[in-house]
Amino acid sequence: MRGTLHQHYRLFDPDSLDRPIVARMVDTQEKEDELPVHTHRKGQLVLAQRGGVTCEVPSGLWMVPPRCGVWIPGGMPHSNRVTANASLLFLYVDMEAAGLPQECCTLSITPLLHELILRMATLPPLYDPQGPLAQIAAVLLNELIALPTERLHLPITRHSKLRFIADALIDDPADRRTVAEWAEAAALGERTLMRLVVTETGMTFSRWRQQLQIIVAIQKLSAGDTVQSVSGALGYESVSAFITMFKKALGKSPARYFSDRGADQTRVDPAGGVLPASPDAWSL
Hints:
- By secondary structure, this protein is an alpha+beta fold.
- It has 2 domains: 5-150, Regulatory protein AraC (Jelly Rolls, Sandwich); 158-282, Homeodomain-like (Arc Repressor Mutant, subunit A).
- It has helices at residues 5-11, 111-121, 132-145, 160-171, 179-185, 190-201, 205-222, 227-233, 239-250, 254-259; strands at 21-27, 33-38, 43-50, 53-57, 60-63, 68-72, 78-82, 87-93, 105-108, 149-150, 153-155, 266-268, 274-276.
- Strand 12 and strand 13 (274-276) form a beta hairpin.
- The protein starts with a helix and ends in an 8-residue tail after the last strand.
């Protein structure tokens, strides 16, 4: 279906369907969209075929990287934010199935699993529980529980002071205020803020902010932005400085990061960076 995330959520209730696995495809409109905090009994796997998606849960912000999906266990409150003209796949799974992750995680999606989800998303959700589609669902579940995990998320605390800073950085990731300036804005001592960030997130302040920038960078690159425009949006004075940060954080340049997730998925932009390819980049 094409429309807003709100329309999808209003018209489709996965918990009302008596099937262990249900899949849906959603193409969003020509502007960014966000579905506020909601929950359902079934677990949810979120994949982006085109564009960028972030999922927020009480403990953190999760990015859906290329060739990956974010798993959200059933019953966990979460919100979804997508870039304009995104194409999404939602997979809903009964949590009674053995082996499903009990916490949020990023799963590395195989081409086979993607094709199985896509197949289910194009067929009626109330399939014959004894028919061929039920057999596809069984194979899909076996593939799902065997997937390796990748961690690409921003720990977000419920502490009001840190949440204030996190919200401000999410709204403006180019904000270059120092720890001392953020401490003053949050009415905290500088050392207190530094200790608080480590205690609440397990990261230093600079590493925590860098993780947010990585998430934003991957989202923007997935949506089609150039490396040059992304580096500017994150407040870097040069493209090379941004690429250096990206490489130190993930062990590879943006171009290599995307190409390693499918050589047919990327193309070089005029700035020497990387752009996602066409919406058909997932096709086999």
